[in-house]
Amino acid sequence: MKRCAILAVTALALAACGDIEMPEGGIDNAALLAAGDDTANWITHGRTYDEQRFSPLDQVNTETVENLGLSWFADMDTARGQEATPLVIDGKLYLTTAWSKVKAFDAATGEKLWEYDPEVPGETAVKACCDVVNRGLATWGDSLYLGTLDGRLVALDRETGAVKWEKQTTDPEMAYTVTGAPRVIDGKVLIGNGGAEFGVRGYIAAYDAADGEELWRFYTVPDGDSSDDPEYLQKASETWFGDVLGSENGIGGGGTVWDSMAYDPDLNLLYIGVGNGSPWNRAYRSPGEDGTGKGDNLYLSSIVAIRPDTGEYVWHYQTTPGETWDYTATQHIILADLEIDGAERKVLMQAPKNGFFYVIDRETGEFLSGKEYIPQNWASGIDENGRPIENPEARIDVTGKAAMVMPGPLGGHNWHPMAFNPEEGLVYIPAFEAATIYEPQADWKADRARGFNVGFNLGAGDLPPDLGIRKQVYGTVKGKLMAWDPVKQEARWTVEFPGPWNGGILTTGGGLVFQGNSSSEFSAYNAKTGDKLWSFPAQTGIVAPPITYTVDGEQYVAVLAGWGGAYAITADGDLVNSQGPVRNVSRLLVFKLGATGELPAEKELAELPLDPPPSRADAQTIAAGGTSYARYCAVCHAPAAVGSTVLPDLRRSGTLQSKDAFLAVVRDGVLKDRGMVSFRDSLTKDQMDAIREYIIFRANQDKDAGVK
Question: What's the domain count of the chain?
């Protein structure tokens, strides 16, 4: 392989190299700054600090992609959602899997080099709103950095997988989780966390790459006592009302930084995406004197620019002021230079959950433009100041009435990374359409011990399958791959999918866009036209984004396959998925031109019969069980107990046949090591019995409706 030795490294010298040798001692600041010129490797989450996920590699192109074949694959040992972006460094591929495990392979042959299991306790799963996923690693020197589901930051030796140090970055007594990939800037490891649905207070922090010492912490929301807060939080406190934050029985306010980051080294600005409020319903989170929602609640649902060396606040732009629909701004952030109105602008682009595509000046935070990229009904547009023009009927925290709002809490675009092709000037968005019925919960109160706690009735759509309103809601669900022109703010082309929750994007200098989808297919499209040029039957839904790299002059394309994540565990039932069940077969798939590898024969999907005991409970018991189910169970086992193919379908559970067996799981926690913790401290025995009766009732409903 052609190599360029790095001695006195400068960006100019690196720009002349295609395959760049890592400097002695491992990854350094110069290597990360020059990642865009290094076509052999993939050394940071979005390939480059600007998170464009564009590779100039063109050996695989619109003419040759038809010859792309499976070079090697590796089966994973975690049959849960797989969301990671692998890293490739000097011919070795490193990736994370569900349950925060790490594996290393020879990037050309697939030989397993080492693996690491942080042994995350199974009961941690109940703290995770959206599956036990992990999105990847960061690297610095000769180390890899991993955020674990239970909130640890772990430094591993890149050669052996041995632990160098680990640091608990969250309060283990709180329902914090870490699923996002860290980033490293000049020897500082940056990581946020999740948990807004469980009453935590969001922040991002920086840790010394050498020993894990915390260097700074940036909180995204005030804590109720602003007297000692920095100025940016004192300003934020003026946009919050009521006394919920920081009170003895209060909540954290949310605003978790659970995924997106991007960095501009010229401006020395780190851009973070901030999540939703806790609870979602602003009427409870920030009530005015009349009890309705009030205030913008900074810095929820915002893009915030900070200094990575100190954590100093610089500017913010709030995409959804006073958010109340789980409209996070944690979705992928891309930096680019675009010509707008005849002038070149340094911009930041984002397609957050709320359905609008934003172009922001990344130097100042000035709003440049914003247009809806998918149908939505919560706002009629965005005014010249960048503030949404809201539909009053969608403002359910003010009306107190139920409403069907689009997008729903999974958004028009979720965590799945977009990609920007500078040769085409297009952003490729893994978008989808889905509405949700939001109904305020009448008896809500702040209670961190309760678990998933959002201020809405999560059972609002739990109606039998033959009733129109449920079909109306789920009939809105579809998926799209969109090529979006960020200057004209319009779609150049669109590919429609039968289902949502399709994978992240890679685009290349070969004129291609790669994406996996929920139809268990991995495909390549013409970046200019959207024509499908190649596809591979992956045997499982793909949600993770692909990468590309070279070894010995050959280009490879890799993707981690495995169905899972928020949609898969909350809505992927046989009543709501038009494609039928999507299985999880977790594998790393690696392709190159001329390869002829094959996957093992696809196994039959095991189907448990829908054969519940008769439903004999009275209507009051079933209703009470449905309420408890919606609050405690639906986040993992889907609303209305429709089931999924990732977690057990409770309608088909053998424990329905026996109260004692059901209590052994729900009360006694016999399956806690597999993620099903005891709810002894949250539910009474009568409530548990009522949940079982509700599930039996729902199972009989669906059996009578013809579900097999």
Answer: 2
Angstrom distance (rounded) from CA 412 to CA 431 = 6
Strand pairing report for 102-106 and 112-116: antiparallel
Whether residue 684 is contained in a domain is answered as: yes
The pLDDT tens digits for 164-177 are 999 999 999 999 99
Nearest to 590 by CA among 93, 100, 138, 54: 93
DSSP state of 182: P
Residue 693: inside a domain: yes
- At 45, which amino acid appears? H
Q: Which domain holds residue 646?
A: 619-704
For residue 32, being part of any structural domain is answered with yes
pLDDT, tens only, 126-138? 889 899 999 999 9
- The model carries a pTM of 0.92
For residues 362-399, one letter each, b for 16 or more C-beta atoms within 10 angstroms of the residue's C-beta and e for the rest, the string is: bbebebbbbbbbbebebbeebeeebebeeeeebbbbbe
d(CA 632, CA 254): 19
The shares of helix, strand and coil residues in the chain, as percent rounded to the nearest 5, are 15, 30, 55
Q: How many Å separate Cα 124 from the centre of its chain? A: 18
Question: Helices 659-666 and 685-704, interaxial angle, to 10°?
Answer: 120
Q: Which helix (H) or strand (E) holds 348?
A: strand 343-350
Element (H, E) at 568: helix 566-570
Where would I find the H helices in 26-101? 29-33
594-649 per-position pLDDT tens digit: 999 999 998 776 667 788 889 888 999 988 888 888 878 877 787 778 777 788 88
Q: Give catalytic residue positions.
A: 326
C-alpha to C-alpha distance for 704 and 708, rounded to whole angstroms: 10
Find the DSSP H helices in 432-490. 468-474
CATH number at residue 652: 1.10.760.10
pLDDT class for 384, splitting at 50, 70, 90? very high
